[in-house]
Design goal:
Helix content: over 70%
Oligomer: single chain
Strand content: under 5%
Structural class: mainly alpha
């Protein structure tokens, strides 16, 4: 756990009020988990979190329940609540779902809206800027924005929400990998190639490229994750 997490959450407390809902608390914890403030395998202290955020026990427990439902936390009997450490099967399942949702979003396009292309392009620009200053964690965040923009092409709120949840879960894997540059750098060029296909109005070619992208990414991620010794069958 980040040694300064209490300070970080003290700042978050200002975003809450006495009537804050579990959903708002879950939003804050989700953000801090995906930023790596709470890393996979970390036990979350209910007492310390309640004190840092200034919320009730019931509100915090409901937030834990929501994040457990999303796959970010897990309750371990007689031990407490932990940030999840994903398994081999979790990663394979996430990529199976990504193929269904993101590739499906491209498959059903008859035209590519210009505003959607702009959002994809903005994510690429953010990744390039972060790579230029050597911030590979921020490159990973921009990559998530890129894939969310791809999913948003489906024009479906449910698809967008499902992809947002699975990308947050996937970040748990990224946080374990020792070298974020090795993990993210190969896909900056692949993202740009997909963007160019969309900008050219060729969603069919973009879908085929994305299928290959996911095949390569799944293999690379499993290998990188296994190299950390954290991978569980």
């Amino acid at each position: 756990m980040d040694e300064d997490w209490g300070v970080r959450l003290a700042g978050d407390r200002a975003l809450l009020d006495r009537g804050s809902t579990a959903e708002r608390v879950a939003d804050i914890l989700r953000q801090r988990i995906t930023e790596g403030v709470f890393r996979p395998g970390t036990r979350l202290s209910e007492e310390h979190l309640r004190e840092a955020l200034g919320v009730s026990r019931n509100t915090l427990r409901e937030a834990f329940r929501l994040l457990a439902h999303e796959g970010l936390l897990e309750h371990q009997l007689n031990r407490g609540v932990f940030v999840r450490l994903l398994t081999v099967e979790d990663i394979k399942d996430l990529y199976a779902l990504r193929r269904i949702l993101e590739c499906g979003a491209l498959r059903n396009l008859t035209a590519v809206p210009a505003v959607a292309v702009d959002r994809v392009g903005a994510a690429i620009a953010a990744a390039d800027e972060a790579a230029g200053r050597g911030d590979w964690a921020a490159v990973g965040t921009a990559n998530m924005r890129f894939h969310q923009a791809i999913a948003d092409l489906a024009g479906s709120r449910r698809v967008a929400e499902a992809v947002r949840a699975l990308l947050a879960e996937l970040r748990l894997v990224f946080l374990v990998v020792a070298d974020p540059r090795q993990l993210h750098e190969p896909y900056t060029a692949a993202n740009r190639a997909l963007y160019e296909l969309l900008a050219a109005g060729d969603p069919a070619a973009a879908e085929a490229a994305l299928q290959r992208y996911f095949d390569d990414a799944e293999r690379q991620l499993l290998a990188a994750y296994a190299a950390t010794g954290a991978l569980v069958s």
